[in-house]
Amino acid sequence: MPMFTEDRLRAVTALIVRRMGSDAEETALVADHLVRANLAGHDSHGVGMLPAYVRLLQDGLLVPNQEPETVLDFGALLVLDARRGYGQHMAAESVRRAIERARQTGACVLGMRNSSHIGRVGTYGEQAVAAGMAFIGYVNVADHHDIAAPWGCAEARLGTNPFVTAVPGADGPVLLDMATTTIAAGKARVARNKGVPVPDGCLIDAAGHPTNDPTPFIDDHIGALTAFGRHKGSGLAVMCEIMAGAVAGGQRAGEPNKGGILNSLFAVVIDLARIGGDAAQVLVGVEATKAHIRSSAVAPGFEAILLPGEPERRSAAARRAGGIPVDDRTWEQIREAAGKLGITEAELERANA
Ligand SMILES: NC(=O)c1ccc[n+]([C@@H]2O[C@H](COP(=O)([O-])OP(=O)(O)OC[C@H]3O[C@@H](n4cnc5c(N)ncnc54)[C@H](O)[C@@H]3O)[C@@H](O)[C@H]2O)c1
Q1: Residue 199, ligand 1, Cβ within 6 A
Q2: Which ligand 1 atom is at minimum distance from the Cα of 311?
């Protein structure tokens, strides 16, 4: 399995993104986002997305160098239309504007509609936390076909609809960043590429029965991912769809579209210096809560008590030290995608040298 240092993987990714037509700034942003997703251990949202992005570009469903268009700018409310722009750029720019607004008004309610795939949503939570803000995000995924079955459904009716909440912590953000399906769709893709089954309870087949085989789902869109957490997780998935779609005005699941992956985001960005009076005091409270949780005995079968965001930081430390693995099939798909852009093997090797 190919192993990459962070810098080399970023250089290979940047070569491909630049050749897709992004300017230097957008290229750096997208490459950094994808490599950081791999570092965090979320290979499903890392450089393995590049072949899909090249397909979207060539089908006219992903637009490089876009700027989000203002739909509504009213006090603390900001609604932007990303018009299929490169998601990593569209979401980062929308959150940047929401942070700027929250500094003036104490909080900003952001709707960002119709972006191409925004990747690892936790990245935008980290962006807000770095600016002294808390972040709550509901995201929907409108695709040309639904892939997730809500509680009680034998058929897919939603996307994997991620939910994020982030606040600062002394050793990095407390960052809950999760698909509302039992596993993210990209994890089924990674399993299919590695030729391994998905865990029990993640997937149903065409008749609604449980299955562990990701191949029909990935190759032929047969079956559906299950919502996590029974009726409660399914309810959160439904609310992600409604807040990002019906409320923020993004493309809704089931609405006819031109295809491709569209993400819309409903987010609340809160200035902790205002709501807490003093951001340092909020941090004291966060740390006290973490310490209280960690004061518990570790449950049988667990190695440690981890808080949201910690597994990703552990993964990043391990991968910075030991390298980032990219499985053979994914690397092959990336090379094929690069080839479609006219990038030669020699160019790829130079970027990876
Ligand atoms: N853009 C999109 O359309 C889209 C759609 C779905 C998912 N995603 C992304 O996919 C990524 C993966 O999502 P996922 O649901 O597979 O994540 P996951 O199940 O690996 O982790 C979910 C959350 O649980 C926490 N966690 C994990 N193990 C833990 C443990 N042992 N103890 C305590 N907390 C723990 C993590 O820190 C994380 O906050 C996310 O970054 C998400 O934003 C994006």
Answers
A1: no
A2: 37
